[in-house]
Amino acid sequence: MSTREVFTDRLQAGVLLLPTMVVSLLFLYYPTVRAVGLSFYRASLARGDVFVGLENYRRLASSPEYLRSLLVSVLFAACVVVGVMAVALCVSFLIHEIDVGKGVYLVAVIWPYALPPAVAGLVFLFIAHPNIGIFTSYIETLGVDVNWFSNGPQAFVVVLIAAVWKQVGYNVIFMTAALGNVPESLTETAELDGVSRTQRLLRVYVPIISPTLVFLVIMNTIYGFFGTFAMIDLMTKGGPAGATNILIYDLYRTAFQFYEFGFASAKSVVLFVAVGLLMYGQFRLSDRYAYYGG
């Protein structure tokens, strides 16, 4: 290949990458750098920007409301990951086991994921509304007083169920594809050995599709921390009494309700670092426990 052809190929690659780089610089890298810088200021619309050093971070460390929001966020994200993975794995296995109507079942499971988060939140709000919800009367026949507008634990559970319902379809897409790549000979051997369906799923399929499961754990963790904002905003607005006030929503309120942009920037930096460290830990664990063949 001549030097001119190499230059032409590189120039073409650079031109094709230019729009992505421009968008990334304007809407990803610059806002990140700006947020880090702003976290060292007391920034507000009324008083302007005043350099305060690490004061915003000290406020975070000594704020019981923020620490509670952190605990709520970790608990919520953990429940989302476990709930989504468990439900999606069972549903994917059942779909994988059938031969007739598989496409219909896939569409029925996946369609909630196609809904925007705000729409999914509104749909589930009316499904589980304490007064007019479709399922509310059935739940109350079991002796449960449904009033999650004022009951913190109930609100946490309702939002959690909505978040799991919204994300299951995304996981099913990947899990069914991974299960479809499992060699048929393994399934036949397990059946001949008398292995039950449950044992076949847990002892045969799960280790083989573990790289896909690791990827989904990471994506579900990101979803649990960031992707449920619209649902919480529409369904509970962080309440009642902060029961669903996860970090991303607490950050939003600090910036756009209380207009403390410097303090909100510090919260965003802490959230970014915390989730980044969590992702790093998950990647390290995946190298140890995921099966990549060989």
From TrEMBL:
Membrane spanning residue stretches = 12-30, 70-95, 104-128, 148-165, 204-226, 261-280
Q: Which CDD domains has this protein been placed in? A: TM_PBP2
Keyword annotations: Cell inner membrane, Cell membrane, Membrane, Transmembrane, Transmembrane helix, Transport
Q: Which family does it belong to?
A: Belongs to the binding-protein-dependent transport system permease family.
GO terms classed as biological process: transmembrane transport
The ABC transmembrane type-1 domain sits at 70-282
Q: Which organism is it from?
A: Haloarcula vallismortis ATCC 29715
- Per UniProt, what is one Pfam family of this protein? BPD_transp_1
GO CC annotation: plasma membrane
SUPFAM superfamilies per the UniProt record, alphabetical? MetI-like (SSF161098)
Q: Which PANTHER family match?
A: BLL4140 PROTEIN, SN-GLYCEROL-3-PHOSPHATE TRANSPORT SYSTEM PERMEASE PROTEIN UGPA
- Topologically, how does it sit relative to the membrane? Multi-pass membrane protein
Secretion signal: which residues?
none
* Protein name per Swiss-Prot or TrEMBL: sn-glycerol-3-phosphate transport system permease protein UgpA
- Description of how the protein assembles with itself and partners: The complex is composed of two ATP-binding proteins (UgpC), two transmembrane proteins (UgpA and UgpE) and a solute-binding protein (UgpB).
| Compartment(s) where it occurs, according to its Swiss-Prot or TrEMBL record | Cell inner membrane; Cell membrane
Q: What is its main location?
A: membrane
